[in-house]
Amino acid sequence: MKELTLTKKRQTEDDKSRQQVLIESGHIPEHIAIIMDGNGRWAKSKGSIRLHGHKVGVDSVRDITEACAQLGGTYLTLYAFSTENWGRPTAEVRGLMRLLVSSLRKEADNLHENNIRLVTIGQLERFPEDCIEELTEAIELTEQNTRLQLCLALSYSGRWDITEAVKKIATHVKEGRLDPSLINDQMISDHLSTANVPDPDLIIRTSGEYRISNFLLWQLAYSELYMTERYWPDFRRNDLYQAIASFQKRDRRFGKISISKDENPSNSRLLKN
Ligand code: FPP
């Protein structure tokens, strides 16, 4: 397969062998979701303006996207702009929008050449027209790609997502097309913006905060959480590898119990309650 070249750097042998260790030592999470945080504090620590933190954060996005695709992950969801972020100073919001447009302009062909599909979740209609145009072009260009789905959560919040799903389901009920007793977990998942995408296996948050901040609230029911002190602009592939190694050591029981192979070697590791 053609070598991935998002970062324009040749992959080193050392990096290939680190990835190989992870691939051989367990599951690579199918869906990784990341709360990218700490751009402002990173910039402050360098005596720079906040926007500089966001700009260097784009380099992290590129590196992490490339590493995920190389590892064989299928879905990467990035919390790039929350509903609450609209409340930031206008200059910062405008700066972020400009950065989004310029990054998409630079990266869209690159994503496409590397068989990566770009999608978004959130209230895209709240974005300025040039942003929507650039996003729509990149989304259409990469529509058929299959290696990795890169989802940008833009003007997104988990409560917004659930509220929209409830509105759609309530409309089906109102129109007499749905018996409320048939509403179940799966139906709610199917009406969220992430319908058809598996729930995240691993959620990473950078910058030493231990919060979910209104991200994928329904979808994270059984996600493994990994919090790191690193600010997002410093978070690169080796940090991702640490997060995945930690994930591989977890015992995911999904509310059931695990038994050792010695106790019952013929059974799978998971037993129903
Ligand atoms: C959080 O740091 C980061 C954001 C709100 C924006 C993330 C955006 C990028 C990395 C750049 C654009 C992304 C793409 C996909 C092109 P913060 O500003 O909350 O930092 P702080 O908590 O230290 O203030």
Topology:
Blueprint: H1 13-25, E1 31-35, H2 39-45, H3 50-71, E2 75-82, H4 90-113, E3 116-121, H5 129-141, E4 148-156, H6 158-174, H7 185-190, E5 202-205, E6 224-227, H8 237-249, E7 257-258, E8 270-271
Parallel strand pairs: 1-2, 1-5, 2-4, 3-4, 5-6
Antiparallel strand pairs: 7-8
The structure holds farnesyl diphosphate (FPP).
Farnesyl diphosphate binds at residues 36-41, 54, 57-58, 61, 78, 80, 85, 99-100, 103, 152, 207, 232.
In short:
This protein has 273 residues and is an alpha/beta fold.
The top level CATH class name: Alpha Beta
The total count of strands amounts to 8
Bound molecules: farnesyl diphosphate
How would you characterize the largest beta sheet? 6 strands, parallel
Q: In sequence order, what are the helices and strands, one letter per element? A: HEHHEHEHEHHEEHEE
Strand order of the largest sheet: 3-4-2-1-5-6
Residues in helix, %: 40-55%
Q: Write down the CATH topology.
A: Undecaprenyl pyrophosphate synthetase
CATH-defined superfamily: Decaprenyl diphosphate synthase-like
Compute the CA-based radius of gyration: 20 Å
Whole-number mean pLDDT = 93
Overall tally of structural domains: 1
Q: Structural class from helices and strands?
A: alpha/beta
Please state roughly what percent of the residues sit in beta strands, choosing from under 5%, 5-15%, 15-25%, 25-35%, 35-45% or over 45%. 5-15%
Just name the CATH architecture: 3-Layer(aba) Sandwich
Our measurement of the CA-to-CA distance between the termini, rounded to an integer number of angstroms, reads 44 Å
Number of helices: 8
Morphology: globular
